[in-house]
Design a protein that fits this description.
Layout: H1 6-11, H2 32-38, H3 43-47, H4 50-64, E1 69-70, E2 86-89, E3 93-96, H5 103-107, H6 118-131, E4 136-141, H7 143-152, H8 160-168, H9 170-194, E5 198-203, H10 211-217, H11 219-230, E6 236-240, H12 247-251, E7 257-259, H13 266-273, E8 278-283, H14 292-306, E9 312-316, H15 326-337, H16 339-346
Parallel strand pairs: 1-4, 4-5, 5-6, 6-7, 7-8, 8-9
Antiparallel strand pairs: 2-3
Helix pairs in contact: 4-6, 6-9, 7-8, 7-9, 8-9, 9-11, 14-15
């Protein structure tokens, strides 16, 4: 039963046999099977086809032996239900041709139509059938991170337009965040109804905000989202990058599990977040490009401090880099799954 899987048990803080592990971007260009598909289809073509998105999602689980699948998609995909057009440029990321930079732009947003995303829900149904006992994580971008792509028109280092909107046109920014929050709730609800057994919100760029701006302009929307999603009774994972200063507040957002990047040691994250939420993380993904000893020592530090924590899930601090050797990632999964016995040997049992 999916519900008894070690991943879902750990999300809920229930006893489980081994530390569960999966990786953000576990499906992607580091895999020869994915590169072969990409020779024929763009990333968006893969994500917009139920059959292909399902193939990519399932192959990552089969190749790695991880404890959860993550829907193959992108944080931008729900925008297909809004009429906003975007592209994903290789080595750049999402690009929006007509950015939303003023109240005027935001006032022209169309009503969100989840029916335009039926390919995602159909893809989820296909995937869940094929995965057997492995749980599928559905996901969405969180409103601030989506707003940042919409306002900037692409990746940014400064978030100039997003912050300008937030401070200079506070009501318009709020209207955009509310629009995106409604979209996220409806989109993720439909994913859970199609069979996703956990949901993750990626707030990758929220760490660009001060704590006080986070509290004023983002947290109220996140609370509302998690309150609405709580009805679905599936674990809710909330991930941010460079968001150590926000952890205590994120812990009070209503999320079940917080995803943290590599900058903060997990015991410090635990102290900041308290014991009511789970933690997921946080090996520096660049270790995967530095050879096995670097991977092992970083992972050992994480497991020594966290393997007895009832609500801990191993992951990277961010996505798998495209240059990673798949064999190394696979070795890491087996090593993590073997951890309990290794620890017992070390302790002389
Ligand atoms: O395996 C998985 O984790 C599921 C699939 C997934 C993708 N994107 C596939 C993808 C998930 C969960 C995402 C989320 C996502 N997308 C985030 C949040 C997580 C994070 O990394 O912070 C963000 C910020 C995006 C936006 C985005 N999409 C970026 C920055 C890029 C990379 C651009 C590049 O070429 O390096 C993308 C494209 C993308 N999304 C790829 C994949 C596998 C690369 C696609 C390709 O060229 O084939």
């Amino acid at each position: 039963m999916v519900g008894d899987s070690r991943f879902l048990r750990a999300c809920r803080g229930e006893p489980h046999d081994r530390v569960p592990v999966w990786f953000m971007r576990q499906a992607g260009r580091y895999q020869p099977s994915y590169r072969a598909l990409r020779a024929r289809y763009s990333m968006l073509q893969l994500a917009r086809s139920p059959k292909l998105l399902s193939d990519v999602t399932v192959s990552a689980v089969e190749e790695l032996g991880v404890d959860a699948a993550i829907l193959f998609s992108d944080i931008m995909i729900p925008l297909d239900g809004t009429g906003i057009t975007f592209d994903i440029e290789e080595n750049v990321g999402p690009v929006v041709a007509e950015p939303l930079r003023t109240g005027h732009d935001i006032a022209r947003l169309r009503t969100f139509s989840p029916g335009l995303l039926n390919y995602v829900f159909e893809g989820i149904r296909l995937t869940v059938d094929r995965l057997g006992g492995t749980p599928l994580i559905g996901f969405s971008g969180a409103p601030f991170t989506l707003a940042s792509y919409l306002a900037e028109g692409g990746p940014s280092r400064t978030y100039r337009w997003t912050k300008r909107l937030m401070w200079a046109e506070e009501e318009a920014f709020k209207a955009l965040m509310e629009y995106l929050s409604d979209m996220v709730v409806r989109y993720l609800t439909a994913q859970a109804q199609a069979g996703a057994s956990a949901l993750q919100l990626f707030d990758s760029w929220v760490g660009a905000l001060s704590l006080s701006d986070y509290r004023s302009h983002v947290l109220p929307h996140m609370r509302r989202i998690f309150k609405d999603l709580a009805k679905l009774q599936v674990p809710l994972i909330y991930f941010g990058v460079g968001a150590q200063h926000l952890l205590a507040d994120m812990a009070g957002s209503g999320a079940t599990v917080l995803g943290v990047d590599w900058r903060i040691p997990l015991p410090m994250a635990r102290a900041a977040a308290g014991s009511a939420v789970g933690l997921m993380g946080n090996l520096d993904p660049q270790r995967l490009l530095a050879g096995w000893p670097a991977v092992e020592s970083g992972s050992r530090e994480i497991l020594r401090s966290m393997s007895r924590d009832p609500q801990f899930i191993f992951n990277l601090g961010h996505g798998v880099p495209k240059e990673v050797d798949p064999a190394l990632l696979k070795r890491l999964v087996s090593w993590i799954h073997g951890w309990e016995s290794e620890k017992m040997e070390e302790e002389g049992y």
